[in-house]
Structure formats: C-alpha cells, structure tokens
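Note on ligand handling. Small-molecule inputs were canonicalized before submission; formal charges were left as drawn, and no protonation-state enumeration was performed. Where a ligand contained multiple stereocentres, the stereochemistry in the source SMILES was retained. For zinc ion, this procedure yielded the string shown in the input block below.
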Amino acid sequence: MKRTFLTLTALLLAPLVSLPAAANEAMLAFEELLKIDVHSHVFEDFPALNDLFQRINMRTVNICVPAGDGHLDQMHRSANELYRKYPEFYPFIATFDVRGHDRPDYAEKVIAWLDGQFALGAVGVKIWKEVGMEIKDQDGKFVLPDDPRFDPIYAHLAKVRKPLHAHLAEPIDAWLPLDPASPYFSYYSKRPEWHFHGKPGVPSHADLVAARDNILKKHPTLVLIGAHLASLGHDLDAIADRLERFPNFHIEVAARARDLVRHPSDKVRALFLKYSERIMYGLDAMWKPFLREKPPTDLERRSHLQMLELRYREDFDYYAGQGVMTYTERQVEALHLPRSVLEQFYNGNARRIYKLDAATKPAVR
Ligand SMILES: [Zn+2]
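Structure output:
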C-alpha cells in the first residue's frame, strides 16, 4: 500500500491552514517510526499479522478482555502462548474475574491469579466497562470501579508496580439520545445494553468518571491508563484537568481519534504538546477466532490485515501529517506533531510505562 506516501506528498503541497508547531521538520515516514499499538486483542497465532507488524514497524500490547464472558482461561492461555513465541510482538495485559466479588476471599484469589500472570510476563492489568455498567450486586445495584472490594487488588498493583489499563465508562454519547450524527450511532444501535440513555437506576457518566478519579485518590502510587481518551473524548479540558491532578494518570487514544477530530486541531495539538509524556497510541483491533463457530477464512484474514494497515496509516496521517485531510468523512487539519512528541506518543511512553524493553526480551527478565 502506497496510499500514505501519496497522501502525505499531496498534503505537503497543499496550502497550510495555519502554521503548525513543527513546520520546519522533515516529514517523518510511516515505516521509519517504531510504533506500539498499546491496545489490541489478538488471540491466535497469526503469522501474517507478524509479517505486517515487521513490514510497517509496528508492535502491540495484547490485552485480555473482557473478564466476565466465561473465556478467561482460554484467552490468557492464548495470550501467554503468543507472548512466549513472539515476545517482541505480543507483550500482554492480563485481566481478572469480576464475578464472585461477594466472596470473602475474592481479592486474595484475584491477587494470586494476577501474580501468576505476572510470573508469565504480564506487563499490566485490564479493567473493563463491565465494572460500573454491567456487574451488579445481589441487591441489583451496579458495582462501581472504586468499590472497596477492589481496593486490595489496586493496592497490590501499586505495590508490584503494574499499571492498570482502565476502560471505564463509555463515551458521553452512551448517556445521550441515539444520534445518527454521533460516531457511536452504529455501535449503540447494535449494542443497546451499553446505551444507558433513559434507563432508570444506571450510573451516570459523571458517576463513573468520579469513581475512576476516586481510585487514583485512594491509590496515588497506582499507575492508571485511561483507555479510549479516558471516556472523556468530548471534553479535552476534563482530560487535562485529570492529567494535572493525578501524576500517575495517563491516557491512550484507541478507537477515539474520531473524537479528537471533532475538536479544533490547535486545541488537540496543544494537549499532545503539553502532556507529551502522558498519551499513548492505540487502535483497538480485535481478532478472537475462538468466539467463532468456524475458523476464519483466508479472505477474512486478508481483509482484517488490510483494514488494520489502512487504519494504522490513516491514524498516522492525522497525528504526523500536515494540512487538511479527511478522517472518518470529516475534513480536519492533521496535527503534524513534532518528531519528539511522535516518538513519545508512538513508543517512548509505552516502553516506559509498561516496561516493554524488559518484557520483549524474556531471556534477560
Ligand atoms: Zn479494546
């Protein structure tokens, strides 16, 4: 695929809408930069994907999720095996059972399970929106992410210095009426269980954001990554506010560039420049053949890889490119982030936060 090169060349020739911060820097080529997608879900030995990663200079952090659908063991076995075979491509993030939170030995058992995953190389732990939006107590009340029953687990993660990758809450659109103009219209139309608008007795978006803030207040040494722009993609000031207040809070952008492009580019650029050490790249692609009745066909594999490469290149055009571009059918000025910021966003922060340089060399671990 030569699309990005051609697009970038065309953009270079386009008149500048405003002068970007890095106007004098030479354009960085897509393949030139080591890129780490800190948010993917790969659960099969898929050699063509490794070839793609190699060719485009991409690596990933492989995330086990969700915790409550009954596939916990199978998913971790698959992630463990991929990591053993290809440590440079598939460092992984474990998750933990969110059922059984009523049992008195719940936290103790979770901690033992997670320690087992750390021994196998897990670089972090995932918590998903099912906590706060799905899991309920016996009395029918939603269990919130800052529930004291999780505190021993968070305290343990802080102690053993493993980051918590937290997809908590959803975009604000989940609490608003279904709107065809929203980038999430299709998702919430097909997945009404996550569309909380108008439902009685559900936590509000603010309740869930406050619960996440509360985890950070209770566990100030816990490193927490707010997945998907911390579900605050509609409000860059709210993101900045939390980055200011919580020094161990970070964010990643997986599947949320479509929120970023709805803001003025100079405001998005300012956020990336100011918090260049706190933002990581991610895409959120899913490859879970074990959920299917039949194994994927070669055609499905090829189209998955094509989609993946296209989306990686599209994202790169937005973050690194220059001038006006089209992103998800929206005209937007590319961010043209300086090379040093792109290095941090695309690899430096992930390497530091998840200690990936150690994880990708298991022999010396
Ligand atoms: Zn995901």
